Amino acid sequence: MDAETVETHYAKHHATYTANLNKAAEEAGVADQTIEDILANLDDVVDEAQRTALKNNGGGFYNHNLFFEEITPGGAKEPTGELKAAIDEAFGSFEELKKQMTALAIGQFGSGWAWLSKDAAGKLYVSKSANQDNPISLGTGQTPIFTIDVWEHAYYLKYKNLRASFVENLWNLVNWDVVAKNYKG
């Protein structure tokens, strides 16, 4: 991943989602809630414009926080311990998880995300979502622990229209220690 993409993605896109979320949360009277609570309870926001602003900007904030956290330097390059055991149980192997998530990410029509999420019992699931939706805002009862961003701004400066190349190379940047922490959390 090149520096210009990361700078644009984080300092421009993510910063805009953050500022717009803060404004929307204040206007909707939910600024004292966690982002997870806001996203899980969007139906409680009566005003449709406020609900939409929270969904889009809250999703952008939450999704990008997870994405940028997991592509940190260092750490394990493959899952280990409890997370590896859960992946093996749910998917048969780490390679099968990569295959399924890669297919979801590449196959997402338009902008969106591929997700590795867990339920309350620790069982793992893969899914995809459009725009800034995520398993929390979609009401799945699952908590995301890893994501692949397939909005064009995540890869277009370096990869142009080659989303598949971006997704394949992203696997080399994942710090699985961070994902394991998300799994335990």
Helix tally equals: 8
CATH class of the largest domain: Alpha Beta
Q: What sequence of helices (H) and strands (E) makes up the elements?
A: HHHHHEEEHHH
Average of the residue pLDDT scores: 95
In percent terms, what proportion of residues is strand? 5-15%
The major pleated sheet works out as: 3 strands, antiparallel
DSSP, total strands: 3
Low-confidence runs (pLDDT<50, min 5 residues)?
none
Identify the strand order in the major beta sheet: 2-1-3
| Helix/sheet category | mainly alpha
CATH fold call of the largest domain: minor pseudopilin epsh fold
- Number of separate domains: 2
| Proportion in helices | 40-55%
Shape summary: globular
CATH homologous superfamily heading of the largest domain: Iron/manganese superoxide dismutase, C-terminal domain
Overall radius of gyration: 16 Å
Distance between the termini: 28 Å
The CATH architecture of the largest domain can be given as: 3-Layer(bab) Sandwich
